[in-house]
Design goal:
With 468 residues, the protein is of the alpha/beta class. The protein contains 14 helices and 22 strands.
Length: 468
């Protein structure tokens, strides 16, 4: 049996490989113009002369990497539409569908810190490219790097494209029609969503912004709208503070100083949609909501309450997006702040989620609405943490033996975990995008079992070797 998390074992020098969200690494080390050109050429060859849309977020190195991507695509025989404005991944997904492109490429490291860069690939269907394709692209790109066939000699011609106005037009159809007499603070975390989502929200609320403007270092912290980052943005605690990550596909919510985990926001949205409080969002009883294993919790209770089924997928939004695209789920939810709906795009989209939440401002604070929801369907508490390091297979194998003695169901999918008889779920998995191990805990009731969580954390620490 392969050890849980084998994909993130302490690594040898990096070969090209797609993780849970594209190819990612340190700028100038694992991610260089040569690597991007090779990946782009492989994508161009796969397109068989089709159109590929390419752009980049606002990170360091964007211009050189974008030039390399365009050159590689041209060498691979693709027709190229180039986005000059900093590009959000969901905007790219929308453009790929609207333009009938074969692929979309965004040069981004998403929520990772500023020393990282990356290569995200969107399939023709608007979701993340799937493993059977990305494996072929990675192998071809590696071969191009190991045994260069010829210098890049094809003239790199591209057509300019601005995909933001059509995306905004589509997003506005999901927004409230009337002004919401509420204060709202938006934190784009110096990323690409500024000038997009704030343009949508400004006519609808009394909008304030923090962390706006372009900063290549993202203000000295990762552009990830997790609890600690948002509290650092405004430690005083404004009424509603909503954020998006660096490339716009994740969201985070602080409501009146209360952090609301993304899966609980998803549960609130599903409940509101089923009660008719978000008119554009159509979800019907009997349909399925797709989620990953760590998203178990309040969302499950809401789905049972409204007669919706749960479709559990492996971790990585590409599996959730595939469920949307294939019609197996109406909504897809990821515990790290990703969500998609079959009526919009199959890619996760933080701006889409914030737009839906505008409908709920009329009913009071989001924090209070979540508490009222828990009173109706039953309370669940969630905790999450990231531990820097790499998963060691010997420790992970020993952990399985330890968990077997705990009772309950041992989970060996996407890492390792246990579901205990009282409904408590503890889970850990290696990240597919950075050298950390992610821990999750879901506890029935209104209080986190601190002793059990501490024990779980200590067990996981025995399986982790530190980063170099």
């Amino acid at each position: 049996m392969p050890p849980p998390g084998a994909a993130n074992i302490n690594p040898a020098p990096m070969a090209i490989a797609f993780g849970s969200s594209g190819v990612r690494g340190r700028l100038g080390v694992e991610i260089t113009p040569a690597v991007i050109a090779a990946l782009a050429q492989a994508v161009g060859e796969q397109s068989q002369g089709g159109m590929v849309i390419v752009g980049a977020d606002c990170r360091r190195g964007r211009e050189a990497l974008l030039e390399a991507a365009v050159a590689g695509l041209a060498q691979g025989g693709a027709r190229i539409e180039r986005v000059e404005r900093p590009l959000a991944t969901p905007v790219l997904a929308h453009a790929v569908i609207r333009r009938g492109a074969s692929f979309g490429i965004n040069l981004t490291a998403s929520h990772n810190s500023s020393e990282y860069q990356g290569f995200k690939l969107t399939g023709h269907w608007g979701g993340p490219a799937l493993p059977d394709l990305t494996d072929r692209i990675a192998a071809r790109a590696q071969a191009l790097l190991d045994h260069p066939e010829s210098p890049l000699t094809v003239a790199a011609q591209s057509t300019p494209l601005d995909p933001i106005p059509p995306y905004l037009e589509a997003l506005r159809r999901l927004a409230p029609a009337q002004f919401q007499n509420r204060d709202l603070t938006f934190a784009p975390l110096y990323g690409v969503t500024q000038g997009i989502w704030d343009a949508l929200a400004r006519p609808l609320v009394r909008l304030h912004t923090l962390t706006s403007g372009r900063r290549e270092d993202f203000g000295g912290a990762p552009p990830d709208p997790v609890e600690g980052r948002l509290r650092g943005v405004d430690p005083r605690g404004v009424q509603e503070l909503w954020g998006c990550d660096g490339d716009g596909d994740r969201f985070g919510i602080l409501s009146h100083g209360v952090w609301i985990p993304p899966d609980e926001i998803a549960a609130l949205i599903v409940d509101a949609a089923m009660r008719g409080l978000i008119p554009p969002l159509k979800i019907e009883a009997g349909q399925a909501v797709a989620r990953s294993i760590p998203s178990r919790g309040l969302l499950d209770r809401v789905c049972r309450h409204h007669g919706l089924s749960i479709l559990e997928t492996p971790v990585s939004f590409r599996h959730l997006a595939q469920a949307i695209a294939e019609g197996r789920a109406v909504l897809a939810v990821e515990e790290s702040g990703g969500m998609a709906w079959s009526g919009f795009i199959p890619e996760k989209d933080g701006m889409f989620v914030l737009t839906l939440l505008l409908h709920l401002l009329a009913f009071g604070s989001l924090a209070q609405q979540v508490e009222e929801l828990k009173e109706r369907v039953g309370s669940v508490c969630r905790i999450g943490e990231k531990i820097p390091g790499f998963w060691e297979p010997e420790g992970a194998s020993a952990l399985l033996l330890e968990l077997a003695a705990w009772g309950g169901e041992v989970v060996e999918r996407d890492g390792v975990g246990v579901i205990l008889p009282d409904g408590t779920m503890l889970h850990a998995r290696p990240s597919g995008t950075e050298p950390v191990v992610r821990l999750y805990g879901v506890f029935p009731g209104a209080v986190i079992d601190a002793q059990r969580w501490s024990l779980w954390r200590s067990l996981i620490e025995t399986t982790i070797s530190p980063t170099v």
